[in-house]
Amino acid sequence: MAQSRNLKPFYIGLALIAIGGLAAIWMARSSNAARTAAREVDPVPVSAAGFEGWVIGSDSAPVEIVEYADFECGACAHFSVLTGPDIKSRLVASGRVRWRFRDFPLPGHANSPLAHHAAACAGEQGKFWDMMDRIFYNQSRWVRDRRPDRRIKEYAEAVGLDMGQYGDCMDEQRYVGQIEASRQEGIAVGIGSTPSFVIGGLLVVGSLPYDSVVSLVERAERAAEQ
Amino acid sequence: MVIAVLALIGLLLALYLWLWKIGVLGALACFDEGCETVQLSEHAQFLGIPVAFLGVLAYLALLALSLVGIQPRWVDRWEPSAGLAAVSAVGVAYSAYLTYLEAEVIHAWCQWCVVSAVLITLIFAVALGGLVSLRRAQRP
After folding, report:
1. Confidence of residue B1 (pLDDT cuts 50, 70, 90)
2. Which domains, ranges and CATH numbers included, belong to chain B?
3. What is the ipTM of this complex?
4. Min CA distance, B21 vs chain A (Å)?
5. Mutant choice from B37, B62, B63, B107 vs A, greatest count of A C-beta within 10 A
6. Cβ separation of B36 and A17 shorter than 8 Å?
7. How confident is the model over B44-84, as pLDDT tens digits?
8. Which of A76, A166, A193, A209 has CA atoms 20 to 30 A from the CA of B22?
9. Out of A2, A14, A32, closest to residue B8 by CB
10. How far apart are CA A195 and CA A74, in angstroms?
11. Taking CB atoms and an 8 Å cutoff, what residues of chain B touch A36?
12. What whole-number distance in Å separates Cα of residue A69 and Cα of residue A198?
């Protein structure tokens, strides 16, 4: 027969572990919020003569989200996969927001220039955003691939590019200068890590959940109305 | 009791990964980008369900079973221990598969996934040990 044990101290200990764990998760959330704290920046210098980035959304949209991202950065893929679809379907499609993507390949990422250039070559054929989605969704595959160029070429085919034109574009390295110019513009704005966003004059760093993006957009809308 | 503590830690870990997966947390605390690479890979889903969420369910089941197993009316019965061993065996097998994927397919390591693999293996070992000692004790 089992001896009756006083389990109360054990339950208290278990509850303390649970409370401690939940507090740690909450603190992780808070520290992310601190990391994504916004600061005012000068308007993004979009030169009429230079490259203006890749844009979706109406020219008349009152708010612009400028994203600086690196295709090899995990947090950028996280944002693109989790938050990107909601921004497109709920903010861009409704005309509230225009989304501008700016290349910001980070120096330590060996395959990033290739991915950015492939996306630019897709953009030449009007397929930048489709290609961007493919590249981010499949990041874990091509980043570690021995032949990332082959993988990325598969994505180019999958989005329906004219492969002859794509091949010429890649061979000629047609957009290397444009990508570097975009990166330099990012540095001038004060971008130090990716993903970074400028929304209504505020620079925000980190992979933002959709709710945070909406808050920033609403703030920018209020500022635009004043 | 040991299993309850391990299962609770595993539950918190799986909850953390799942909350990140559904976008509640902005960035994963990780030594490098390996965690995000693994969590964003196609292998982080099973039949369309995030593996982290399956982890939450599995650890919840283990926690519930372990709490049942320490109640006076169940403490001498083999069913809770058998249930713990069965659930954790599935967990060990799946964790081994995921660890293989990290090493050979994804080529990135998610430290939290490794910790979870260690936890589930410990739970399995303790559950198996409990089952064996219970059967020995019940032999005439």
Report:
1. confident
2. 2-138 (1.20.1440.130)
3. 0.78
4. 8
5. B37
6. no
7. 778 878 889 999 999 999 999 999 988 888 877 888 888 99
8. A193
9. A14
10. 9
11. 26
12. 12
Tell me the chain A residues in contact with residue B76 when contact means C-beta distances shorter than 8 Å. Answer: 1-2
Half-sphere exposure in the Cβ direction for B116 (13 Å, CA): 30
Give the separation between CA A135 and CA A73, rounded to whole angstroms.
Answer: 11
- A40 phi/psi in degrees, rounded to 5: -70, 140
pTM above 0.80, yes or no: no
More confident residue, A161 or A210: A161
Q: Which residues does chain A have within 8 Å of residue B68's beta carbon, measured at their own beta carbons?
A: none
The C-alpha atoms of residue A13 and residue B50 are separated, in whole angstroms, by: 30
- The first and second tokens of residue B15, run together, are 């909850």
Q: Residue A1's pLDDT is what? A: 45
Answer yes or no: do B106 and A29 touch at CB < 8 A.
no
Q: Which residue has the tokens 């994505």?
A: A155
**Residues on chain A touching B51 (C-beta within 8 angstroms):** none
Q: Measured between alpha carbons, how far is A158 from A208 in angstroms, rounded to an integer?
A: 28
A66, β-bridge pairs: A100, A198
Beta bridge partners of A202: A40, A199
Please tell me the least confidently modeled range out of A27-36, A82-91, A150-159, B43-52: A27-36
